[in-house]
């Protein structure tokens, strides 16, 4: 059965790589081609949208990407001791076909460095580096920590790990992999839909197309409810599933069932990352889309009207922004909002729309603090008597207990693995990344480390706070040719989900359909 599944997925990937313009051309082109497109946000969603839109409309359309910060958004790195380390999204699943496709396409061409990109968009020159490729794999070991001691430590022997899991949890562990695999099999349907040009006007319709009523049920119940209904034990959820949801989403098993399944898939084998940092995908997509980077913060979007060639009035959009030279504005035929429209994430004002579009949708984004420490780990903090020179655990996940002040502790490898590199024991100074909901105090650092050379802290509003039921997600279509890419995050936040949303919205730009605009009686979704 596993071989059959793999062959189907391989065919899907092959079809995705081959479709190119052919798949986009399968739908009738009945709309007037746009002359200018604005994309607000230079993360993986915004740059993927630029890539797909360039494929869709060809070289004639002008695409501008507004990004006030650094290209990559929540994909970011930090330089420590001369090496770069991931501070944002760090792993990609082997079945993330859009991300694979990006790497395949970008690996065929020379790509610029991050510094070159900034100079390129300023019409200056720099050197070209080689195309993208997967990062070299480094062995790893996992442990689970309850705040006082390690409750599980992975063995170097696979059979020993299997026996331990069977002894403690019966068939729960094997059944979990089967359950997640069944969800992934349904998830893979989205690539077939997108290959043939289908797009969906709402997150609910997209989920239903993939997994029917089952996926809609998953997104409106907790992971705990879903797995208990499938016969998993509460002990297994507490001991195994919760540590995974805490490291991936900083939350418990009370997140929605769909994002919970995505989290569990993120604990699968075969995970990979991009050599040089995952943010390089964003840089590469932006470069090859030949989009113009506008380093500015968008403050407002307003709807205007103008006569069309047919004599009827047509919509266009005025985008107001603030850049290095001050306030300015420009007009566009299509606008894609690829940044969260939520409190603390953006303050874009929408004017001239009926019904009105809210500045902020309901719900909030969850804070996760990433702390990178270059130092010497205090292994006794983990309650182990193992000597530091023999302690090779690289990822420590935590249980949902008051004693666990952190969500995870992991030793990081550089984003570009040096030749001959291998993971060092805890007796040597290296870079550790700690996820927590609140910034670490000096006392926390002194408990976890014997000494340190540097501490870097990044506070992320990384993903939504998932508390189902979330019965009304924001729409993909805010208005005719005004799209909201990040609506997909309320089903699940991941690099591949953003890429799927980008491809979905690209399909919407091509189709002539009667749009059903959302009505927000209270000024926001519910």
UniProtKB/TrEMBL annotation:
UniProt entry keywords in alphabetical sequence: FAD, Flavoprotein, Glycoprotein, Lysosome, Oxidoreductase, Signal
GO cellular component: lysosome
A GO BP annotation: prenylcysteine catabolic process
Source taxon at top rank: Eukaryota
Compartments, record wording: Lysosome
Listed GO MF terms: prenylcysteine oxidase activity
Annotated Gene3D superfamilies: FAD/NAD(P)-binding domain (3.50.50.60)
InterPro entries: FAD/NAD-bd_sf, Prenylcys_lyase, Prenylcysteine_Oxase1
Known catalytic reactions: an S-polyprenyl-L-cysteine + O2 + H2O = a polyprenal + L-cysteine + H2O2; S-(2E,6E)-farnesyl-L-cysteine + O2 + H2O = (2E,6E)-farnesal + L-cysteine + H2O2; [(2E,6E,10E)-geranylgeranyl]-L-cysteine + O2 + H2O = (2E,6E,10E)-geranylgeranial + L-cysteine + H2O2
Function: Prenylcysteine oxidase that cleaves the thioether bond of prenyl-L-cysteines, such as farnesylcysteine and geranylgeranylcysteine. Only active against free prenylcysteines and not prenylcysteine residues within prenylated proteins or peptides. Involved in the final step in the degradation of prenylated proteins, by degrading prenylcysteines after the protein has been degraded.
Similarity comment text for this entry: Belongs to the prenylcysteine oxidase family.
Protein name from the UniProt record: Prenylcysteine oxidase 1
């Amino acid at each position: 059965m596993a071989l059959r599944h793999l062959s189907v997925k391989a065919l899907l990937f092959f079809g995705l790589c081959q479709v190119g313009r052919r798949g986009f051309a399968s739908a009738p082109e009945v709309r007037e081609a746009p002359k200018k497109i604005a994309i607000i946000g230079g993360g993986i969603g915004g740059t993927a949208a630029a890539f797909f839109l360039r494929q869709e409309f060809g070289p004639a359309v002008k695409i501008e990407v507004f990004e006030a910060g650094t290209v990559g958004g929540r994909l970011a790195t930090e330089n420590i001791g001369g090496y770069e380390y991931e501070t944002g999204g760090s792993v990609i699943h082997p079945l993330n076909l859009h991300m694979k496709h990006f790497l395949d396409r970008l690996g065929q061409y020379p790509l610029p460095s991050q510094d070159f990109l900034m100079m390129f968009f300023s019409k200056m020159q720099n050197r070209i580096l080689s195309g993208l490729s997967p990062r070299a794999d480094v062995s790893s070991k996992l442990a689970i920590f309850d705040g006082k001691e390690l409750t599980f430590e992975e063995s170097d022997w696979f059979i020993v790990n299997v026996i331990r899991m069977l002894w403690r949890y019966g068939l729960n562990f094997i059944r979990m992999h089967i359950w997640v695999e069944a969800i992934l099999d349904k998830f893979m349907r989205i690539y077939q839909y997108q290959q043939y040009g289908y797009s969906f006007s709402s997150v609910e319709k997209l989920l239903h197309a993939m997994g029917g009523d089952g996926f809609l049920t998953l997104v409106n119940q907790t992971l705990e409810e879903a797995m208990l209904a499938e016969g998993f034990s509460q002990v297994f959820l507490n001991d195994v599933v919760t540590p995974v949801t805490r490291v991936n989403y900083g939350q418990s098993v009370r997140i929605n069932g769909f994002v919970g399944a995505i989290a569990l898939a993120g604990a699968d084998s075969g995970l990979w990352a991009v050599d040089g940092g995952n943010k390089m995908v964003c840089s590469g997509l932006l470069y090859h889309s030949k989009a113009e980077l506008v380093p500015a913060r968008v403050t407002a979007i307003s709807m205007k009207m103008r006569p069309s060639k047919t004599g009827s009035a047509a919509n266009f959009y005025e985008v107001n922004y603030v850049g290095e030279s001050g306030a300015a504005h420009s007009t566009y035929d299509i606008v894609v909002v690829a940044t969260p429209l939520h409190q603390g994430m953006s303050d874009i004002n929408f004017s001239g729309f009926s019904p009105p579009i809210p500045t902020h949708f309901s719900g909030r984004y969850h804070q996760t603090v990433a702390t990178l420490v270059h130092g010497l780990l205090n292994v006794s903090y983990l309650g182990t008597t193992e000597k530091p020179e023999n302690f090779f655990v690289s990822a420590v996940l935590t249980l949902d207990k008051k004693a666990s002040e952190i969500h995870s502790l992991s030793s990081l490898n550089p984003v570009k693995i040096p030749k001959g590199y291998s993971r060092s024991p805890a007796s040597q100074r290296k870079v550790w990344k700690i996820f927590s909901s609140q910034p670490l105090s000096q006392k926390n650092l002194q408990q976890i480390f014997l000494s340190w050379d540097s501490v870097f802290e990044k506070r992320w509003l990384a993903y939504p706070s998932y508390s189902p039921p979330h019965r009304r997600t924001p729409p993909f279509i805010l208005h005719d040719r005004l799209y909201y890419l990040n609506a997909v995050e309320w089903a699940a936040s991941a690099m591949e989900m953003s890429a799927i949303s980008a491809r979905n919205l690209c399909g919407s730009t091509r189709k002539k359909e009667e749009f059903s605009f959302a009505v927000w009686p209270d000024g926001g979704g519910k």
